[in-house]
Amino acid sequence: MHRLGASLFIHNGLKYDYCLKESIESVLELCDEVVVLEAESDDGTLDFLHKMSVDNPKLKVFDHGIWECAPHFSRLAILANQARELLTSEWHFMIQADEVLHESSFPIIRRAIREDEGFDTFRCSRINLFRDFNHYVRFDSDRKPCNDVIVRLARQNIEAYGDAESLMPSNVSDKHVSNILLFHYGMVRKKDCLLEKSIAMQSWFFEDRGVDPQLVEMKAKYGEVRPEEILPNSELAELEWAHPKFTSRWVKERETGSLE
Hints:
Layout: E1 4-10, H1 20-28, E2 33-38, H2 45-54, E3 59-62, H3 74-84, E4 91-94, E5 99-101, H4 106-114, E6 121-128, E7 135-137, E8 149-155, E9 160-161, E10 166-167, E11 172-173, E12 181-184, H5 191-205, H6 213-221, E13 236-238, H7 248-256
Parallel strand pairs: 1-2, 1-4, 2-3, 6-11, 6-12
Antiparallel strand pairs: 4-8, 5-12, 6-8, 7-13, 9-10
């Protein structure tokens, strides 16, 4: 039986309101091993991860990631590949700390690697939530901020590239693309955290061009991101899937501000 691992890297997961715990839990339930590469966080993320690993023997935490290991977005693929290389499994699922794998995908993924039919990589669908927890960016939108069909399941030697949004397509299968669902919560985190995360990211992601003036204006006018000023509602669709079971508490906290 093929062994399956998962990996992710993280920098300041608490400060920027990542669904880090939920992301890890979603792959822990599926995988034989999970590795997290922590990259010089200064917000308590490393301690949080170590505490989480105490109760999860499949979870291995490594703290040798260097956040400024490269300029621009190239650092993301470097860190993603460093995390991947820590796995001992034959197959690999790459996840980011603001994403959660839906539990309905688990048997599909296991079947895919059991009956791989010679494929090395598999595409999946990413649901890019936007504005609130009930809407996502339409698959047919011409203005989507990130891709919604990506390679995340692959043999362990397949590398991440670019900004680590995807693994390198190699002998790729689309057979299960609509049934492997990855929920992306990056644009629905707490709004003040979303603003600071967006500004921090753009300050190094587009270092030569600087931060988007629209974000600077939002900070001055509102102190938070206004999603409707980034992408009009016409580019969104109502969510047609249930959220992963792992995010029920995380979502409720951000919808209501409490767990009452």
